[in-house]
């Protein structure tokens, strides 16, 4: 059974209806961060950054939305592959540094 269905995004309306002030603030923040008029980072880079974060947070909905947006912005499959590998390297690096922390805590106990 797959929990990700693109149409599930419609359920965001239910969140908005049940907590309108916070939801409006979230939507405003999301718009400003990703598409604000004063952004300095180009849209294709923004979408690649969003994908790298989505890969590490494992948000299928974000991957769905930002893959389509990246393609629209001209991101190539070669760039998409690099984004995936950069995200993988950083996630693996995080595991290694947490392993080092565990070694330190082991020695301290």
TrEMBL record:
<dbReference type="InterPro" id="IPR029032">
    <property type="entry name" value="AhpD-like"/>
</dbReference>
<dbReference type="Pfam" id="PF02627">
    <property type="entry name" value="CMD"/>
</dbReference>
<feature type="domain" description="Carboxymuconolactone decarboxylase-like">
    <location>
        <begin position="20"/>
        <end position="103"/>
    </location>
</feature>
<dbReference type="InterPro" id="IPR003779">
    <property type="entry name" value="CMD-like"/>
</dbReference>
<dbReference type="GO" id="GO:0051920">
    <property type="term" value="F:peroxiredoxin activity"/>
</dbReference>
<protein>
    <submittedName>
        <fullName>Uncharacterized ACR, homolog of gamma-carboxymuconolactone decarboxylase subunit</fullName>
    </submittedName>
</protein>
<dbReference type="InterPro" id="IPR004675">
    <property type="entry name" value="AhpD_core"/>
</dbReference>
């Amino acid at each position: 059974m797959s929990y990700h269905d693109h149409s599930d995004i419609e359920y965001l309306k239910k969140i908005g209806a049940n907590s309108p002030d916070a939801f409006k603030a979230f939507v405003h923040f999301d718009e400003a961060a990703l598409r604000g008029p004063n952004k300095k980072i180009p849209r294709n880079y923004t979408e690649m950054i969003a994908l790298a974060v989505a890969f590490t947070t494992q948000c299928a909905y974000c991957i769905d939305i930002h893959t389509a947006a990246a393609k629209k912005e001209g991101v190539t499959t070669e760039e998409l592959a690099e984004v995936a590998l950069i995200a993988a390297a950083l996630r693996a690096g995080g595991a290694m540094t947490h392993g080092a922390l565990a070694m330190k805590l082991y020695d301290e106990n």
